[in-house]
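Example S7 (structure tokens).
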């Protein structure tokens, strides 16, 4: 089958065209690629072959120049790419620049600038509240419905899908113990999230309003916020997550442009509390995205979290993150927070799926409370696309190796 004939119904058809960075087997040269079915198009080489003005933007070792080029350029480049892969006259010219995915290595697609992680699922926040504060009158903290809670994470340990994750060591102190001990985490967990990638920067002192979300955010990807629950539980009061999360954060190798997700936009859940004007999205376009996520451990699906249930939208998170005048940089990444739906089969962490280890999960050949060495966790997702199609998101996978 000629490479352009992507099977009908393929979630990576010409309606999708996510961006990544690849090198060919045997070469160390990285360049921007666009996924088409089970192939990757060398975008810079294709642009050169067709005499496109975007060749310099695409023949790059990271997506950062494209991210920095801004929304008009994003739309123009996507329009050009769509034409290249759908107009039959280009087939012969482009064929040498299409490579099977099995013959390339995928890399972290952009230089991550700052990394922020939020906590935007009401179901997740309520579950965690019930697990850790069972005696509290309300499972949500008093601020939760008024602002998207977040923290600044560690951008230097954001890794591409496929990177092995070494079990972290640190201080752990179960409540009944008198003193902490040091050693490998015994409660290693996942958090199924969606990451948003900032393209256009903003200057210090200038908040980014809800209405400017699409001018700044280029696209999204799946994200696994690996979490060592025992380290986290002992260290987090009063300043929040630190070493329990900073050892690794995995992102997919493919960044899906927001322009590919127009048919997936949905209204977020009904707001139960009035919002301050900078967060009030009642007169904005729908800010939610209908992304259907699957979480698999060793190939066995354990959960299907629905992103459409997230209370806070990515636009609200961006507005909140900058309302104090904090600047944005090209390559900033922010995570949505663990995605958990209302059903028990829709929870995005083992903490919730096993209710803090109380109820072991049954895998085909084993039971799990938290992750064991050798376990491989894979997040996949799709979204509704144009004309009944599906838009696939690039998977994010990682295998746990023993700590020291
Ligand atoms: Ca998280």
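Recovered sequence:
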């Amino acid at each position: 089958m000629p490479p352009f004939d992507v099977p009908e119904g393929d979630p990576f058809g010409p309606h999708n065209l996510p961006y990544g960075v690849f090198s060919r087997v045997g070469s160390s040269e990285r360049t921007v690629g666009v996924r088409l079915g089970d192939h990757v198009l060398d975008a810079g080489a294709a642009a050169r072959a067709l005499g496109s003005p975007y060749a310099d933007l695409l023949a790059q070792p990271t997506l950062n120049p494209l991210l920095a080029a801004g929304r008009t350029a994003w739309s123009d480049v996507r329009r050009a790419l769509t034409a290249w892969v759908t107009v039959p006259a280009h087939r012969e010219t482009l064929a040498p620049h299409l490579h099977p995915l099995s013959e390339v290595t995928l890399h972290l697609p952009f230089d991550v600038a700052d990394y922020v992680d939020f906590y935007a699922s009401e179901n997740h926040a309520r579950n965690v509240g019930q697990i850790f504060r069972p005696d509290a009158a309300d499972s949500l903290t008093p601020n939760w419905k008024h602002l998207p809670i977040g923290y600044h994470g560690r951008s230097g340990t954001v890794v591409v899908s496929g990177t092995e994750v070494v079990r972290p060591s640190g201080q752990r102190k179960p409540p009944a113990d008198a003193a902490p001990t040091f050693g490998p985490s015994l409660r290693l967990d996942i958090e199924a999230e969606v990451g948003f990638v900032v393209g256009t920067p903003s200057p210090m002192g200038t908040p980014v309003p809800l209405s400017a979300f699409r001018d700044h955010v280029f696209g999204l990807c799946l994200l696994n916020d690996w979490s060592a629950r025992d380290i986290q539980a002992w260290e987090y009061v009063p300043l929040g997550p630190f070493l329990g999360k900073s050892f690794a954060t995995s992102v997919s190798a493919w960044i899906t442009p927001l322009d590919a997700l127009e048919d997936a936009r949905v209204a977020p859940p009904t707001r139960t509390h009035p919002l301050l004007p900078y967060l009030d999205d009642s007169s904005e376009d729908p800010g939610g995205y209908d992304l259907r996520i699957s979480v698999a451990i060793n190939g066995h699906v354990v959960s299907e979290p629905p992103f459409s249930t997230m209370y806070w939208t990515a636009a609200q998170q961006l507005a909140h993150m900058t309302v104090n005048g904090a600047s944005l940089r090209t390559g900033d990444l922010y995570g949505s927070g663990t995605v958990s739906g209302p059903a028990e089969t829709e929870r995005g962490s083992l903490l919730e799926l096993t209710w803090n280890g109380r109820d072991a999960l049954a895998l085909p050949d084993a039971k799990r409370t938290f992750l064991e060495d050798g376990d491989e966790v894979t997040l996949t997702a799709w979204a509704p696309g144009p004309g009944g199609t599906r838009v696939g998101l690039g998977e994010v996978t990682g295998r746990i190796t023993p700590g020291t």
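Notes on this example. The radius of gyration is 21 Å.
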